[in-house]
Amino acid sequence: MADSAPEHEVAQLRERLEDWNYQYYVLDEPSVPDAEYDRCLRRLIELETAHPELLSTDSPSQRVGGQAQTEFRQVAHELPMLSLDNAFNEQELRDFNRRVLERLKYPADTQLEFACEPKLDGIAVSLLYRNGLLERGATRGDGSTGEDITHNVRTVPSIPLRLRGSGYPELLEVRGEIYMTQDGFESLNQRARERGDKPFVNPRNAAAGSLRQLDARLTAERPLQMCCYSVGVFQGGSMPERHSDILDLLHSWGLRINTESRVVSGIDACDAYYRELADKRADLPYDIDGIVYKVNDLALQKQLGFVSRAPRWAVARKFPAQEEITRLLAVEFQVGRTGAITPVARLEPVFVGGVTVSNATLHNSDEIERLGVQIGDTVIVRRAGDVIPQVVSVVQDRRPADAKPVVFPKVCPVCASVVEREADQAVWRCLGGLVCAAQQKAAIWHFASRRAMDIDGLGDKLIEQLVDRQILQSVADLYRLDRDTLIGLERMGEKSADNLLAAIEASKETTLERFIFSLGIREVGEATARNLAQHFGSWEALAAASEEAFLEVSDIGPVVADHLRQFFDDNSIMGVVAQLREHGVHWPDIELRAAADLPLVDQTWVVTGTLEAMSRADAKARLQALGAKVAGSVSAKTSTVVAGPGAGSKLTRARELEIEVIDEAEFLLRLQRYGGGP
């Protein structure tokens, strides 16, 4: 007699997975992160393996995806669109390689050739071409039956309506992933917020919703792309015998393939490729959640065959989950240097995106209301690359009976001053200004930071002491500090005091752009500060400029122009600036040049990868100050590409077009040569 405990758990897991499948694939409203789904599916497979009498054909472990939506015409796939088994660590990847070699009866040290491709986080689709013309597009659906989305895929610019060249089969099924870039996703959500619509949770969710529009005109407005990864059925022709050659052939016919794809030999090279892509993952313009490895030889693929739900010749090694599930313990409110009040979620620690996360941003009161989040809720947290973790949704069916609403403060949590929200803004701000210790501390820390006045040794703990003891009330007070005052502070010895005073003295010699940035003007970062300095040349010209004059500066719009004019019209702020100059803070004026005289005028540059000496925004500002146009993609019109470590598809494209590529060292030399600074 079967043990009732595993039978009960199997029934529960199946019901839960089917519910999540329905919410994800049918309703397009995912309720749990992929990591939670994967855990439950793996547990179900473990139980069914240990208790084969419990296995049934309707189990989620025997299906590929969710039930097809009924709003679209059903499409039966002639060749099932299967999913892939997953490897969650290096050992599981090596186990996959071992099983492949054992099934092929090859020696254990055989170096098989694998085709490696980033696993795009999008929607799997099938494209059917007859005599080179696009005839049908379909979703994967449940693997056997999908939905006819021909009217929608025709709107995707990267899907050719007619194949290029010649030599393609009379009937060709191309399989790939439709996805949305991060920039496209942000743009789509910004438009949604402006209309008062609910923004999408993530790019995959946005792509799925776009493909399920009955009106193709709506889909056409969405920034979708498609990348091919294989072929299905084909008739009236032949295909190469290696997977990588098939992809190259598809590319020659006008279909997009991933430029990060690579062919390697042996499992060690597979692991090295995984680590390389993991390092550059945050810099890719699209989301990937792992790497797909396929035995490259199609004859070997055929020999290896399939299990019920996946091919034996391929596996997906997953990256650490970027979304995880945890519990919201409390919400605290932090005050920034501009008075903005930000709610911060205190979480039950959870491992996500490669690190343990215990805090996440809730952005503002509108976001709290949109999420409907309450203290005690089970929430989904997302972390991508170096981005600050954020709460993206609430698992409503796990809300405890004692959950409490999040109450936004009526007064500043630091100084009890009035808080105010501008009519067109989502942010509440403390109006205490320099009366608010939190704003004082944040403003001083920003002023002293490395990319501003660069006062080494002035950390946040020291600033906290100086403000709490009312020694510092503005940044100008830094230049009144003396040795005796500093030595009297906690953990401040004579040598540390001397070093700090020397750093404060050295900071008096700066540049106009650094000084502008150090003042913490709302929405004026390093790039905007550099543009202002290069445009006006002197502090006097900048301070006297009108809003109309600010609008003439590159990358400055009406909102920033208004912030600037308000800043320079504030007598108390201008008084602090006057004190700084009286204390000896100085900088050279910048010689202004006519646009036609700028050395890079009419040139288009692209910056890609990671730069060590500056941010990409700073590099862009420096190039613009020299007259260059800075683009986000490489084309035949690109003059030069600056490629730092981690440069990916843009670097590959530049080499294909034989465009000049320089590294960061050469870039810095050219900036000096052109007069754009070190």
UniProtKB/TrEMBL annotation:
Domain (BRCT) ranges: 595-664
Keyword Ion transport annotated: no
GO molecular function: DNA binding; DNA ligase (NAD+) activity; metal ion binding
Record-listed NAD(+) binding positions: D34, A35, E36, Y37, D38, S83, L84, E117, R140, E177, K294, K318
Reaction it catalyzes: NAD(+) + (deoxyribonucleotide)n-3'-hydroxyl + 5'-phospho-(deoxyribonucleotide)m = (deoxyribonucleotide)n+m + AMP + beta-nicotinamide D-nucleotide
Highest taxon, organism lineage: Bacteria
Entry protein name: DNA ligase
